[in-house]
Predict the structure.
Amino acid sequence: MNLHFYKYQGCGNDFIILDNRSNKISLSTQQINKLCDRYFGIGADGLMLLENARGYDFKMIYYNSDGNESSMCGNGGRCITAFAKQLNIIKDSARFMAIDGEHESHIDDKIISLKMNDVSLIEKREDYFYLNTGSPHIVKWVENIDTYPVFEEGKKIRYDESFKSGGGTNVNFIQLKEDKLVVRTYERGVEDETLACGTGVTAAALVEAMVNKSSHTNYCDVVTLGGNLTVTYQQQDGSFTDIWLKGPASFVFEGDYILY
């Protein structure tokens, strides 16, 4: 099978994207895992299919690099918006469907903004917070985040028995430095630290807003290993609405891959 693919990245969170409006592409878990393999495939944190959806500009189907269909991917949503523009499906805004429902996105030069789902519940558990921003996330405050063992500690929490029934959780470690929130994330499905995670950045920003109520009123600047993102929101009585994930997303390259 010959696949024409496109590679996009948002703050180093990289994706293979396939145009499946013809509905002719059908990939197995093993095939997706092979495509995402950084040594024996194209290499990516995940793979997306862009498909038709009645009443919307397109539908986003997202798979983690392990080959399994996953919950919402924030940076993926921003990248597939850029891809839709490249295909001339949209101009500078989109309404599309994803696994967690309808999303809106906008393009302003190189900055792509994605509207996230409202968040009405942030649970305080022991020494961390738990919430769902389209994907489940643990958010934990740490010190010395630059040298923190994200892979080792993230893996422990991701596979903890308390999260097993829900397919596990993503894990974010955060520290506030010079009015910017530094976030490092261990992603389930990738099973490693990624350079950025959109739903994780969103989760971290909302926790920071809840804990440090006086720091910002409606936005949070976030630093990841792959670049900077901004989360804006409206907050009232512990609930968050009008949440937007904003930052760069760009085309990397395209090519053909013969999948045996």
In short: The CA atoms of residues 97 and 238 lie 27 Å apart. Helices lie at 29-36, 74-86, 150-158, 198-211.
